[in-house]
C-alpha cells in the first residue's frame, strides 16, 4: 500500500468516524454477549457470568482504545470523545473556566493590540518597491558629533559621482507654499526634490508621472500633488494632469498625482514633516551651492546585493576623497552615515515601542502563570478521577492528551475573546498614540497580527496545558486512591506553583518599577520650563512671500502686526522664522567672537532665529542682560543680535556678552552671508527641539535685518487663544485675499505633542503595572487555594493538636510572603538591569530611583498579602473533627 492509499484510507476512516465508531461499539457488545452466553452454558448464574466476561475482557478501555487506534490512527483515535469530555468538564467548572478565559483573553488581547503597533511601526515593509534597499545618508562632522546632519548640494553631487554602492541618490528639503488663484488660498508643506526623487523611492503615480530632468533647476515649472490635496482642493478632478495651478507666485503644471497610500518616512530630528502635500523640483542648481550650506536630506537606493556594511565602507572612502578636495571639510572631519530608511524613521520612537511590547509580553507571561496555577488548583480536585481512570486501564499518554485537548478547548474561545479585547485595546492605543508614531494608518488587525494571536494562544496552551500532566505522570496512584496524607508535600505541582509565583512577583516588580520610573520621568518633563510661557498663547503661520511683495514685504509685515495688535484681548505679539517644538524645519550655523579663528570656532553651532521686535516678550522669554529688539533695529541700522545663555557662555565664558561683537550668518539677497553683529541682549535658553534635550544655543536676529518666510506669529491673549482665530482670518483677508493662514493652534498643543511619546509609554506602563498587580494577587490566591485544598486535613489536625486559627493563618501567610520576598529580590535585580534599557525614555530619574522602587515594593507586598488572605482564612476554618475521622 503506497502513501497515497494510506492517506486516503485514513481520511476515509476519519470522516466516516461516527459510523465506524458505532460499528465498533456494536461489535464489542456482541463479543461481550457471546462471552456471557458461553459462561452461562458452563453453568454460571447470569450475574456471575457477566463478571467473568468482564474479567476476561480486561476493561473496555484496553479493548476499545487499541481498536480505535487501529481504525483511526494513534492521533485521531477517540479524539471527538476527548473533545466532548473536555467541553463537559469545563462547563462543570464554570468558575474556573470563567477566570481562566478572562485571564488568557486579557493576556492575548493586550499582546495582540501591542503587536499590531509593533508590526506596523517596526516590521511592516515600507510601501515602495524593494524597500529594504532604501537608505538615508547623513553627514557627520566633528562639531556635530552624535547628530544626524543634512548635506549640501555639492556633497550630493559628489555622492552621486563617487559612490560605488548607491544606485540612486536624491535630495529633498521641506518648506511651505501657498495655493492661490481663488477665494480660498491654502498654505501647505511642500517638498523641493531632485528629479530622481520618486524613482529613488520606487513610487508609482496614481495618475501622470514623476519629474523629468528638464523640469528641474529653473526649467519648466511642474508640480506633483498628493491624493489628499487633489481631492480636497481640486475636487478629485480626473483631468487635473496637464493643468496649471497658482502656487508660490508661479503657474506650475500638474504632472502627477500620488496614490492614497503614499507617505514619506523620516525621523523626527530630520525636521521633514510627514504632512507634505505637494512636490516641486528645486528652482535653482543646488550643485552650485556653497559646499557648507547643509540643508538637503539625502535618500538613496542600494545597488542589488549590496549590504549596509559594504555601503558604509564605501561612503567612508567617499568621505576621505571629498575631504581631500574641500579643505574646509577636512578641518570639519566630514564623514557619512548610512542607515536603512525604515529603521532610521523609527530611530526615536523605536525604543518606546520595544519597551511597550516587552511590557505586554511580561503581562502575557503572568497570565500564563496564573492559568497554570489555576489548572494546578483544579487538578487537585481531579486526582482521584485520574487515579480511577488509570486503574481502569487508561494510559497516562491518553490522560495527557485529554489535558491538551482541554487546553485547546479553553484556548479557542479565549483566542476569540482575546482578539475582541485586542481590537478594543487597539482603538485605545491609536487614540493615545503620539503624532510622531509613524505609520499609524497601517495599524490594524491584519493577517500577521491575527497569526501572532493564534501562535501566542497555541504557545500558551503548550506552556500551561502540560504542567498538570507532568505532575500526573509522577504521582502515586495507590496513595492517591487511598488518600494518603502528606502526598501533597511530594507533589511536583507544589514546586512548580511556587516557582510560578516567584516568577510572577519578579515580573510584576519589573513592570511596576518600570511604570513608576516612566511616570516620574513624565512628571519631571511636565515640570520643565521650556524657556517660554505657553499658556494663553496662540500661534499661526503666514507666508509674507517676497514674490508677492518684493521690496514692500517689510511694510506689509508692519501693517499686519498693527492689525493684530488692534484685536481685542491681545496683550503682546511677535513673529519668528522657526517656532519652538514645531516641525517647520531648522536653521543653524557657526558663530565666533572677536579674536577667534574660524577653525577654532568650528565646533560652535547655534540655532538662528529671525524674529520681530515683540516676539521674545510675547513668548515670555526672560531677558538676563541687555534689552529686547525694538523699532530702532531696522534694515538700515547697524546689525545687532540677542544670544541665549549657552552661546554667551561658549563665546565669552566668565564675561558679559553685552556690547561684544559676534560673527553670524545673516540671510540677505545674496544668500547666507557671515556678518559681524553687536550683542544687545542675553536671553534664557529655549528648548527648541525637545523638552528633554538641549541641542544648541540660540541667536536671534531682527526680522528686518534678516527676513525669512514664512513667519510663525504668537499672540498672548487674555481669554481662550482660539477665540481669536476667526478675527485673525478676517483681518488677513482684509490685508490681502491671496494670503493663507495655517497651523492655527495654541502653543500648549506643541508642548503636549512633545510630551506625547513620554505620556504614551508612561500610560501603557502604568496600565501594565496595574494588570501585573491584579494578576499577581490572583495568581497567589490560586496557588495557595490549591495548596490549602490539598492540606486541609493537615490544618485540621494542627487545630486539633492545639494550634489556634491565628497560628494557621500565620503559617499560610508566612509561606506566601516567603515566596513574595524571593520574587521581590529577583525583581529588584531584574528591574535594575532592565531600567538601563529604559534610560533613553527617562528624564531626570535614576535607574534605581528609591521612590519608584519603594512604591513597587509596597504594592507587590500588598497584592501578595491580599492573595494569601483568602486561602489562609479557609485553612483556619478547617474542621478538626473531619480531619480526625479521615485519619
Describe this protein's structure.
This protein is of the alpha+beta class and 887 residues long. It has five domains: 3-77, no CATH class; 78-129 and 349-484, no CATH class; 142-333, no CATH class; 491-535 and 750-887, no CATH class; 544-739, no CATH class. The strands form three sheets. Strands 1, 2, 3, 4, 5, 6, 7, 8, 9 and 10 form a ten-stranded mixed β-sheet that branches. Strand 18 (661-668) and strand 19 form a beta hairpin. Helix 6 crosses helix 15 and helix 15 crosses helix 16 (447-465). The protein is elongated. Mean pLDDT is 81; it is low at 70-77, 484-490 and 546-550.
Task: Briefly characterize the structure.
This protein is of the alpha+beta class and 887 residues long.
User: Ranges with pLDDT <50 over ≥5 residues?
Assistant: 70-77, 484-490, 546-550
Shape type: elongated
Structural class by helix and strand composition: alpha+beta
Q: How many strand units?
A: 22
Number of helices: 29
| Amount of beta strand | 15-25%
The largest pleated sheet is described as: 10 strands, mixed
- End-to-end Cα distance, whole Å, is 61 Å
Mean pLDDT across every amino acid position: 81
Roughly how much helix do the residues carry, as a percent range? Answer: 40-55%
The whole-angstrom Rg is 37 Å
List keywords for this structure.
29 helices; single chain; alpha+beta; 22 strands; 5 domains; ten-stranded mixed beta sheet; 53% helix; eight-stranded mixed beta sheet; 15% strand; 887 residues
Amino acid at each position: 500500500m503506497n502513501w497515497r492509499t494510506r492517506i486516503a484510507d485514513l481520511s476515509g476512516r476519519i470522516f466516516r468516524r461516527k459510523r465506524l465508531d458505532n460499528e465498533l461499539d456494536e461489535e464489542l457488545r456482541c463479543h461481550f454477549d457471546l462471552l456471557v452466553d458461553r459462561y452461562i452454558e458452563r453453568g454460571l448464574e447470569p450475574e456471575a457470568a457477566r463478571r467473568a466476561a468482564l474479567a476476561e475482557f480486561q476493561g473496555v478501555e484496553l479493548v476499545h482504545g487499541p481498536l480505535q487506534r487501529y481504525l483511526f490512527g494513534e492521533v485521531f483515535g477517540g479524539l471527538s470523545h476527548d473533545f466532548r469530555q473536555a467541553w463537559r468538564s469545563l462547563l462543570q467548572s464554570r468558575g474556573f473556566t470563567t477566570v481562566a478565559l478572562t485571564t488568557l483573553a486579557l493576556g492575548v488581547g493586550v499582546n495582540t493590540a501591542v503587536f499590531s503597533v509593533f508590526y506596523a511601526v517596526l516590521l511592516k515593509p515600507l510601501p515602495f518597491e524593494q524597500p529594504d534597499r532604501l537608505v538615508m545618508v547623513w553627514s557627520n562632522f566633528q562639531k556635530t558629533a552624535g547628530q544626524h546632519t543634512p548635506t549640501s548640494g555639492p556633497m550630493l553631487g559628489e555622492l552621486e559621482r563617487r559612490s560605488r554602492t548607491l544606485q540612486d541618490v536624491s535630495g529633498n528639503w521641506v518648506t511651505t507654499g501657498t495655493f492661490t488663484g481663488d477665494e480660498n488660498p491654502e498654505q501647505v508643506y511642500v517638498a523641493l526634490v531632485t528629479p530622481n526623487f520618486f524613482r529613488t523611492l520606487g513610487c508609482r503615480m496614481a495618475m501622470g508621472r514623476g519629474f523629468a530632468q528638464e523640469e528641474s533647476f529653473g526649467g519648466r515649472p511642474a508640480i506633483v500633488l498628493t491624493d489628499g490635496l487633489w481631492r480636497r482642493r481640486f475636487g478629485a478632478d480626473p483631468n487635473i494632469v496637464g493643468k496649471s495651478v497658482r502656487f508660490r507666485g508661479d503657474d506650475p503644471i500638474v504632472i502627477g498625482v500620488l496614490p492614497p497610500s503614499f507617505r514619506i518616512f523620516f525621523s523626527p530630528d530630520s525636521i521633514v514633516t510627514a504632512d507634505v502635500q505637494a512636490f516641486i523640483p528645486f528652482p535653482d542648481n543646488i550643485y552650485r551651492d556653497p559646499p557648507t550650506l547643509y540643508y538637503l536630506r539625502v535618500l538613496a537606493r542600494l545597488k542589488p546585493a549590496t549590504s549596509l556594511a559594504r555601503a558604509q565602507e564605501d561612503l567612508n572612502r567617499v568621505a576621505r576623497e571629498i575631504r581631500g578636495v574641500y579643505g574646509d571639510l577636512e578641518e570639519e572631519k566630514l564623514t557619512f552615515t548610512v542607515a536603512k530608511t525604515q529603521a532610521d524613521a523609527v530611530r526615536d520612537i523605536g525604543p518606546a515601542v520595544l519597551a511597550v511590547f516587552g511590557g505586554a509580553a511580561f503581562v502575557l507571561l503572568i497570565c500564563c502563570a496564573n492559568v497554570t496555577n489555576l489548572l494546578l488548583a483544579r487538578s487537585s480536585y481531579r486526582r482521584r478521577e485520574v487515579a480511577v481512570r488509570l486503574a481502569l486501564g487508561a494510559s497516562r499518554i491518553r490522560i495527557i492528551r485529554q489535558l491538551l485537548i482541554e487546553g485547546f478547548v479553553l484556548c479557542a474561545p479565549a483566542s476569540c475573546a482575546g482578539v475582541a479585547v485586542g481590537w478594543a485595546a487597539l482603538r485605545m492605543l491609536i487614540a493615545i498614540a503620539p503624532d510622531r508614531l509613524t505609520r499609524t494608518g497601517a495599524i490594524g488587525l491584519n493577517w500577521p497580527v491575527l497569526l501572532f494571536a493564534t501562535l501566542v494562544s497555541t504557545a500558551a496552551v503548550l506552556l500551561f496545558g502540560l504542567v498538570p500532566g507532568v505532575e500526573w505522570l509522577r504521582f502515586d496512584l495507590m496513595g492517591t486512591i487511598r488518600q494518603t496524607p502528606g502526598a501533597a508535600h511530594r507533589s511536583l505541582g507544589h514546586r512548580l506553583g511556587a516557582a510560578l509565583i516567584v516568577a510572577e512577583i519578579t515580573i510584576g516588580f519589573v513592570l511596576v518599577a518600570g511604570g513608576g520610573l516612566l511616570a516620574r520621568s513624565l512628571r519631571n518633563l511636565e515640570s520643565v520650563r521650556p524657556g517660554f510661557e505657553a499658556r494663553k498663547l496662540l500661534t499661526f503661520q503666514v507666508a509674507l512671500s517676497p514674490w508677492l511683495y518684493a521690496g514692500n514685504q517689510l511694510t506689509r509685515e508692519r501693517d499686519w502686526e498693527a492689525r493684530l495688535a488692534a484685536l481685542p484681548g491681545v496683550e503682546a505679539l511677535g513673529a519668528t522664522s522657526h517656532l519652538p517644538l514645531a516641525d517647520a524645519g531648522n536653521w543653524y550655523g557657526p558663530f565666533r567672537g572677536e579674536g577667534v579663528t574660524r577653525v577654532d570656532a568650528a565646533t560652535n553651532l547655534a540655532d538662528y532665529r529671525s524674529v520681530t521686535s515683540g516676539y521674545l516678550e510675547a513668548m515670555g522669554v526672560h531677558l538676563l542682560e541687555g534689552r529686547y529688539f525694538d523699532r530702532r533695529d531696522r534694515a538700515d541700522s547697524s546689525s545687532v543680535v540677542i544670544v541665549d545663555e549657552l552661546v554667551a557662555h561658549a563665546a565669552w565664558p566668565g564675561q558679559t556678552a553685552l556690547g561684544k561683537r559676534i560673527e553670524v550668518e545673516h540671510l540677505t539677497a545674496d544668500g547666507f552671508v557671515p556678518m559681524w553683529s553687536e550683542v544687545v541682549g542675553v536671553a534664557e535658553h529655549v528648548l527648541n527641539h525637545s523638552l528633554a534635550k538641549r541641542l544648541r544655543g540660540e541667536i536671534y536676529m531682527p526680522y528686518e535685518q534678516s527676513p525669512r518666510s514664512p513667519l510663525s506669529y504668537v499672540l498672548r491673549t487674555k481669554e481662550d487663544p482660539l477665540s481669536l482665530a476667526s478675527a485673525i482670518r478676517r483681518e488677513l483677508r482684509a490685508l490681502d485675499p491671496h494670503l493663507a493662514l495655517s497651523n492655527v493652534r495654541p502653543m500648549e498643543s506643541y508642548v503636549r505633542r512633545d510630551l506625547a511619546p513620554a505620556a504614551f509609554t508612561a500610560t501603557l506602563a502604568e496600565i501594565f503595572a496595574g494588570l501585573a498587580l491584579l494578576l499577581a494577587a490572583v495568581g497567589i490566591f490560586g496557588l495557595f487555594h490549591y495548596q490549602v485544598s490539598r492540606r486541609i486535613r493537615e490544618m485540621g489536625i494542627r487545630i486539633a493538636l492545639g494550634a489556634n486559627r491565628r497560628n494557621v493563618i500565620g503559617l499560610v501567610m508566612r509561606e506566601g510572603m516567603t515566596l513574595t520576598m524571593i520574587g521581590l529580590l529577583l525583581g529588584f535585580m531584574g528591574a535594575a538591569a532592565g531600567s538601563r534599557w529604559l534610560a533613553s525614555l527617562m528624564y531626570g530619574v535614576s535607574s534605581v530611583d528609591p521612590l519608584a522602587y519603594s512604591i513597587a515594593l509596597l504594592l507587590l507586598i500588598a497584592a501578595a498579602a491580599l492573595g494569601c488572605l483568602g486561602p489562609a482564612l479557609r485553612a483556619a476554618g478547617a474542621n478538626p473533627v473531619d480531619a480526625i475521622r479521615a485519619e
